[in-house]
Write a structure and sequence with these properties.
heterodimer; A: mainly alpha; 16 helices; flat; B: about 290 residues; mainly alpha; two-stranded antiparallel ribbon; elongated
Amino acid sequence: MIKSKLSRILDLDADDISISALKAVEEAIKVDDQFRASKEPSALTLDERSNLFLNAVYGSRAFTSDDYSEARNALLDAMASNLFKDHSPDTGELGEEGFAVRETPHEAFRTMRAAYSRDVRPPMAGSSMPPSRDNSASSGRSADVAFLPDENAQFQRPPMETSDRKTNRLSRAPRFGAIAAILSLAILSAAVSYLVLNPSNSGHSFADLSLDRLRQIQQKTPTRETVQTRQLSSIDSSEIARRLLEVGSRLITNGDLYGGRIVLAEAVDAGSAAAALQLGSSFDPVEDERRAMSQRVPLASTPLASSARVAAATLDPEMARFWYERAKQLGDPEAQARLDRLAGRGR
Amino acid sequence: MPDLPGSSRDTPEESASPKNFGDLNEARAEHRLRVLNSLPFRHQRYLFQEVAVRCSRYLRKSGVSSSEVSMEEMLSEVWKKLLSSISVHDESAALKLEGLSINLNSPELDGRVIWLIGEIGGYEALAHRYEDILRQRYGRFTPDRGRLIVQPDDDEDFESIGASEPPTELDEVARLAWFGLIKLAEQKFPRADDVSVLLQLLDQAPDLFDEAGTGQWPINDIVRRLSSLFPNAGWNVDRVDNAKRKLMRWIGRLKQMNGLDQTDFEALLVRVAKKSKSDSGDVGGITKSLS
């Protein structure tokens, strides 16, 4: 009964709406089109919101229908909280900027509550979970399908917190893992080389080696991947730092400030003092002003100087100081002067 | 940074009533969403990265370990806040895009991106999102009591008591959606409004539509019932029809302004009902909370 009443009221496209109601809806849509046109861009659909949410939190990659479903649920929950602002004081969400959320009177429809009580039927066990929704059913779906209750308790935890996603996007764990793997392979191959090239140390000569011993050595012989890794590791770290510095500078010059900073940070890790200086410069408001001046007098000596000015929002004296300190530690002679200039501005 | 109407916390709106705060905040939230939607993909990507960097920096500077609040949680909260903004007032979007400079080539120079970064990635905004996370877990902090643990929304034991004739899931969902609609209407329409009265009648007479059979709203039946309930109120077909159209227009606009289709909207209503239930402190299910 309630379902039919609901569908009658909510489904504006239903055939059973009277002609006058249809006209009213058309009118409303017309007004709404004008409203949208005056405030472009238009409202985001829930699918679009979910897509943005996933991309914002987890980066650009392919997402499964489960991911979308979770995102939709999380957003719908938050939207419901925004819509229904009659919070209890202990569980309420902060207002937009931390202001108290405005109270709304809710004396109305008290009688409806009483009316509801006449139709009391306890809900099914397990139906307390908010409804989930499978994104795969988004096309041609019915509300009935969408409202099957969740069977897990993931509503109590933040969205998308499954164990395989807990890896911090900005974490360097994968890099450390790779370094650890390279180091262990290098140690292993060094040990094998030592064993093979200095058989006397092991108390055996090649002639003395048994078949088992040979098999052991064969198993420990570096694979093609190990050899390649060795070749890579033989590249001078300063050369890597130089190349990273080059790439990072080029990125920043071309306007990719974020990407450039990441690559420069890698260069700093590889020991480049110049990269640290340049990274600090990308955050430095003093240097930003100097770059503005240098754009009028094109005597740019650094890649940053010839690039567009850094957006004010991305300047950060504290970060600049941090990277200048790092440059100083790595032995850059210019770093101290930059630090002084920065400190002078602070005063 | 481009200045928007009402973008400063020193504006006269600050001294306005809490209601104005709410309206202003809603308008700003809606505006953020519109600005985000207006950005090209490259700019959005830059914004995502920049906000991630700021979240990471905030957590690091605040000494929050990843075991306490992970980067994903923080980012999720920030974006959920922005992307869940909802339009309820027709005239709320008073802020427009004119104040923001647009640079399609460089996201870091685009006024829209800079404004959004300032809005959602500033220290204060991130501090609020961090507090939101803590509140969701532990409740609001009070100086004398600390944080109260929020009771998990697990009513299973209570719900099973006295479940003589369990309804189907769909019935329950419809019931919740209906209750959610009423709660929303409660916020929108005054008690004496015709829409409120109409909804009240529909709620009290669940068989009204069934008796009407297939086809249109039982306007005449509604008029008859309302006239018997309120003999001197002057209910007639036009008045009921107007109330019905007003109700449907409100629902239609709510759906359209927030990009919600029928299914999304019903799912939202269910959540509103559940939130209403949890806020009222009831543990016995929606039907018990209404008794």
